[in-house]
């Protein structure tokens, strides 16, 4: 009974500590800490995912494909981060036009214990049905405009819980990685939910940082930050977002997404958001 009580006390204190951190993210005011505490966490690894690739071409515009646009932006983002944030290790899910399974992208991030995962994509609107000369035809809808930030919703969270178990607890308790999700003790389940909630809040917070840069610095239209089921993010065990950089089937946006100016603006805004996020999670005095 004594050991069990001590274990429950440890879980309770851990949950309180992590919840306290989450409150700081929710309010936008980092918790002040001394250097000895802030040194415990270091933002070390970023994964940049160029959406699609190979046979998975993604959306298309009048002259370009999503897979090529995302790769171009991802490579520029890699170079910018390596130049401006030298203490971050940058990993790429692909650097050429190859197909990579969504699950393998997450595995790469999880195996390397990444601290942040950014998946780059281009948006597109489906055709609409219209009546032309008495006939119903399919007409391209090119009215879409702006950026969109997606965070994976946790309605079906078994895959992510398994990933958190495998990675987050591996350093603390090797036995956790061998447990089945459904066989968790009540204490373990509480801790897993705490971590999952922390990743959700941090993902939303980082998505908002990126969105603010797009809107306030680049003057881009934005559809906001939305939580929904995102396959490429579902199995990641760290804060992760998907960036819809623009509507490739809108001629104006397609030109922007393919231009050096547009790609550089997108990259620079993401880099500024990464810098701010890194300062916050490391709790460096401003």
Main sheet?
Answer: 6 strands, mixed
Note the total helix count.
8
Element order: H for helix, E for strand: HHEHEHEEEEHHEEHH
Helical percentage: 40-55%
CATH topology: Aminopeptidase
Mean pLDDT: 80
Described by its quaternary structure, the protein is single chain
Structural class: alpha/beta
The gyration radius over C-alpha positions equals 21 Å
Broad shape: globular
Quickly count the domains: 1
Overall CATH architecture: 3-Layer(aba) Sandwich
Portion of residues in beta strands equals 15-25%
Number of strands: 8
From the N-terminal CA to the C-terminal CA, the straight-line distance is 45 Å
**CATH class division:** Alpha Beta
Describe this structure in words.
By secondary structure, this protein is α/β, with parallel strands linked by helices. It has a single domain, classed as Zn-dependent exopeptidases (Aminopeptidase, 3-Layer(aba) Sandwich). 46% of the residues lie in helices and 17% in strands. The chain is built from 8 helices and 8 strands; from the N terminus they run ααβαβαββββααββαα. The strands form 2 sheets. The protein has a 6-stranded mixed beta sheet with strand order 2-1-3-8-6-7, sandwiched between helices. A two-stranded antiparallel sheet has the order 4-5. The chain is globular, with a radius of gyration of 21 Å. The protein starts with a helix and ends with a helix.
